[in-house]
Amino acid sequence: MRFIDEASIKISGGHGGPGCVSFRREKFIPRGGPDGGDGGAGGDVIFEASIQLGTLQDFRFKREYKAPNGRHGSGVNKAGLDGENILVRVPVGTVIRDFETGEIICDFTTDGQLWIACRGGRGGKGNAHFVSATFQAPKFAQDGEDGTSRHVKLELKLLADAAIIGFPNAGKSTLISRISAARPKIADYAFTTLTPNLGVVSLPEYQSFVIADIPGLIEGAHKGLGLGHKFLKHIERTRVFVHLLDGTKFLEDATGPGEDSFDVAIEELVRRYTVIRGELGLFNEALLHKPEIVVINKFDVLESNADLIERARKGLRDRIAKIRGVQPEAQEPYVVSAATGAGVQPLLYSVYAHILAARIALSKRPELVGKATMPDDMSIRK
Q: Which of 94, 123, 179, 353 is deepest in the core (most CB within 10 A)?
């Protein structure tokens, strides 16, 4: 099944039912007067966010959603039935935009969040409504009103606490399979991961967080090169990045011919680091200000040379400080082996510390907690 994270659909509320033109006709009541009932209101189109959905696959083929019309009124002041509301379920993390302007209309961030996308039309009034002292036999009624309609674009942005980013084949899929129950495809060639993968990381004392494995980025990703550009939007909501660097590539460069091979290896490591940061900034500058943890992966190929590992950590650490403009945390860059699990646990605690800090900061702003975008009041009847 393809990972569908974008779709465009047309939605419209139901048409209101027409009012009725009727006059009371009963035995012994020769002048019963008008008794035409009102038409029923058209149904609404309501969106609901659900954690049970993971993609926008349901919108791949069905592109139009129209609520049922209201029924017409009838005699004896009987109102027509209201059209039933239709419920359109979308994954949590879906953003709805106006198709023409691109303006965000609704952002679904919590399970069960509701939004009335299109109101049904009001039912027309029957002729009984137009009786007056001087006009006692109206022979007309109102037509029902049209429901509102919209052409919208749906975008899915995965809700993950952390995201693993880096060049293709840096070991991102191996890492997420090590720390969670996610089982993405793993192979020794680039662009193995074709879609984002989510995993739940469990820590002692019932602590947990969700982490995403994003397809590898390359230089020019923001322009559409490679695959990762399609999924950069999925990391906009994350609280911290785990920036994975390939230790194998560093080892090849550091043990190459020439006295300056180590410096060349460090510069190449820094270059790959800055390329990824550059792509994030070109896609959305706000991504550069998110917390980031730099990790050198595949250190099992270096473990026989402890001195080389320490020199690599110090050399990269100094350059990271200059690039970010702030001092990295004490153990950064972390050196891990996703394949064996060595060094992974301290990394997870560091990631969780950033996530916990973000959660605490959010809890101090109650206006943002569980905020639902509801431009229409569900309690107000048409």
A: 123
Instruction: State how far the Cα of 266 lies from the Cα of 166, in Å rounded to an integer.
Output: 16
How is residue 370 written in tokens? 């569980």
E-only strand ranges, 41-184? 45-50, 64-66, 86-91, 94-98, 104-107, 114-118, 149-156, 162-166
In 3D, which of 290, 280, 180 has the Cα closest to residue 240? Answer: 290
Tell me how many degrees the CA angle 293-295-298 measures, rounded to the nearest 5. Answer: 160
pLDDT tens digits along 45-93: 999 998 888 778 888 888 999 999 999 999 889 999 999 999 999 988 8
Kindly state the tokens that stand for 92.
């949590």
Does position 370 have pLDDT exceeding 50, yes or no? no
76 CB neighbour count, 10 Å cutoff? 13
1-156 to CATH, choices 1.10.10.10, 3.30.470.20, 1.10.357.10, 2.70.210.12 = 2.70.210.12
Query: Within the chain, which residue ranges are assigned CATH 3.40.50.300?
Result: 162-363
Could you tell me what percentage of the chain is helix, strand and coil, using 3-state DSSP and rounding each to the nearest 5?
A: 30, 20, 50
Which of 15, 20, 55, 63 lies closest to 38 in space, CA to CA?
Answer: 20
- Using CA atoms, how far residue 192 sits from 105, 215, 336, in Å, is 35, 8, 21
- Name, in order, each residue with C-beta under 8 angstroms of 375's C-beta and a sequence gap of 6 or more: 105, 106, 115, 116
Cα distances (angstroms) measured from residue 278 to each of 118, 140, 182, 283, 289: 41, 68, 29, 9, 12
pLDDT for position 2: 53
Report domain 162-363's class.
alpha beta
Query: Any idea what the Cα angle at residue 44 is, between residues 39 and 47, rounded to 5°?
Result: 170
Spatial separation of the C-alpha atoms in residues 338 and 316, rounded to whole Å: 20
- 3-class DSSP state of 33: coil
Phi, psi of 22 (to 5 degrees): -150, 150
Query: What is the model's pTM?
Result: 0.68
| Strand duo 334-335 + 292-297: pairing | parallel
